Amino acid sequence: MSARNPVWNPEQYFRFADERLQPAIDLMGRIVHPGPAVVVDLGCGAGNALPLLAGRFPGAAVSGVDGSTTMLARAAEGGFATRQADIATWRPDAPVDVLFSNAALQWLPAHETLFPRLLSQVAPGGVLAVQMPAMDATPARRLQREVAAEGPWATALAGATASPSILEMGAYYRLLRPMVKRLDLWFTEYVHLLKGPDPVMQWFMGSSLQPYVQALPEALRPAYLAAYADAVRPHYPAEADGTVLFPFRRFFLMASL
Ligand SMILES: C[S@@+](CC[C@H](N)C(=O)[O-])C[C@H]1O[C@@H](n2cnc3c(N)ncnc32)[C@H](O)[C@@H]1O
User: Fold this and answer.
1) Per-residue pLDDT tens over the stretch 23-43
2) pLDDT digit string (tens) for 162-199?
3) For residues 240, 241, 243 and 247, what is the CA-based torsion angle, rounded to 10 degrees?
4) How many C-beta atoms surround the C-beta of residue 224 within 10 A?
5) Which of 45, 100, 141, 221 sits at 20 to 30 Å (Cα–Cα) from 90?
6) CATH of the domain at 70
7) Residue 3 lies in a domain
8) Are strands 244-256 and 182-194 parallel, antiparallel or unpaired?
9) Closest residue (by CA) to atom 14 of ligand 1?
């Protein structure tokens, strides 16, 4: 675990596997490349996108890179090549034709230097294809911070934070447009239909609540989570059948050399 990349729990993350995989499917569907030889999934996690990338690009050598041993252990079960590395310092053995990343780069800081560095690992004619959640301003994410700042856990959580904010879209444009032949940027807001008790909390227990939970002594965790669930519930009311409609905005970036 690092300060920014928590210990990941694949079971919790994949309680909402279909919802989390759909943006990866949408992202790879938009990639235009005549026939990549090398495809890398950066922050591949448990490897769910790897078989889909292999299907999308037959004949390519598809591999995954991730920092989490728990996630990579699951990814290895799929039979794809994986490498444990910090994306911030990772270097491929050879230039990559399709550098793909779904819901991972938001965990890394300093996108002003990270994105040009990643682009420099892409082969001529290649593509950098990225999806990152754009949820920082929503009640669900704001309340993680606000609840953390109040209550008996406040001191323990003073330094805790989930993934740093992604840049505003214009910053990616100004950074990357001069470096590429073509740049596509877009947002998609999915509406996830969630079931079960406190599903928004359960969703983020698989991702951005983990840095808070892991910074707390065990004894304080239930109280922090209960306070977060109470605060977030009115913002995402259940329908008569118990379904919670959870809008989830995602930012997509496709840079083609
Ligand atoms: C939300 S999961 C996404 C996993 C996968 N891409 C998917 O769509 O299911 C984020 C992944 O990014 C990885 N990650 C975050 N920061 C990282 C870093 N600095 N270096 C390597 N992997 C990192 C985490 O270990 C985690 O597996």
Assistant:
1) 999 999 999 999 999 999 999
2) 667 799 999 999 999 999 999 999 999 999 999 999 99
3) -50
4) 23
5) 141
6) 3.40.50.150
7) no
8) antiparallel
9) 43
Determine whether the shortest distance from the Cβ of 102 to ligand 1 is under 6 A: yes
Q: Under a CB-based contact definition with an 8 Å cutoff, are residues 106 and 112 in contact? A: no
| Beta-bridge mates of residue 133 | 250
Which domain covers residue 246, as residue numbers?
10-256
| Domains held by the chain: number | 1
Q: CA-CA distance, 255 to 21, in Å (whole number)?
A: 21
pLDDT in tens, 115-154: 999 999 999 999 999 999 999 999 999 999 999 999 899 9
Q: Is the shortest distance between the CB of 103 and ligand 1 below 6 Å?
A: yes
For ligand 1, is residue 43 a contact (CB within 6 Å)?
yes
* Contacts of residue 72, Cβ cutoff 8 Å, sequence gap at least 6: 44, 47, 64, 66, 82, 84
